[in-house]
Amino acid sequence: MAWTLLFFAGLFEIGWAIGLKYTDGFSKLAPTVLTVASMIVSLALLGLALKALPVGTAYAVWTGIGTVGTALLGIGLLGEPATAIRLACIALIVSGIMGLKFAA
């Protein structure tokens, strides 16, 4: 259950990271409210997951999910470059997340 909570915490982290782009410097109300709500949910789920998972592992996995998801959505939604080196680095982060999951 803790890993499921952590996974969803990571998804909400992606939501707020991408949401920041759409707030236009917190000048747009709806995207700002959704972004702040995503931040709160993400941290709450992370906190619940930490009841059962080591903090170092959980935090690294949480940020890794957020990093990978945000980078991929940046490529897909925002037209950021999808160079081979960038994709290889994302793959390295994914392998690190998997390693932490299996080592826990």
Automatic annotation (TrEMBL):
<dbReference type="GO" id="GO:1990961">
    <property type="term" value="P:xenobiotic detoxification by transmembrane export across the plasma membrane"/>
</dbReference>
<keyword id="KW-0472">Membrane</keyword>
<dbReference type="InterPro" id="IPR037185">
    <property type="entry name" value="EmrE-like"/>
</dbReference>
<feature type="transmembrane region" description="Helical">
    <location>
        <begin position="29"/>
        <end position="50"/>
    </location>
</feature>
<keyword id="KW-0812">Transmembrane</keyword>
<comment type="similarity">
    <text>Belongs to the drug/metabolite transporter (DMT) superfamily. Small multidrug resistance (SMR) (TC 2.A.7.1) family. Gdx/SugE subfamily.</text>
</comment>
<dbReference type="InterPro" id="IPR045324">
    <property type="entry name" value="Small_multidrug_res"/>
</dbReference>
<dbReference type="Pfam" id="PF00893">
    <property type="entry name" value="Multi_Drug_Res"/>
</dbReference>
<keyword id="KW-0813">Transport</keyword>
<protein>
    <recommendedName>
        <fullName>Guanidinium exporter</fullName>
    </recommendedName>
</protein>
<dbReference type="GO" id="GO:0005886">
    <property type="term" value="C:plasma membrane"/>
</dbReference>
<dbReference type="GO" id="GO:0022857">
    <property type="term" value="F:transmembrane transporter activity"/>
</dbReference>
<keyword id="KW-1003">Cell membrane</keyword>
<feature type="transmembrane region" description="Helical">
    <location>
        <begin position="84"/>
        <end position="103"/>
    </location>
</feature>
<dbReference type="InterPro" id="IPR000390">
    <property type="entry name" value="Small_drug/metabolite_transptr"/>
</dbReference>
<feature type="transmembrane region" description="Helical">
    <location>
        <begin position="57"/>
        <end position="78"/>
    </location>
</feature>
<keyword id="KW-1133">Transmembrane helix</keyword>
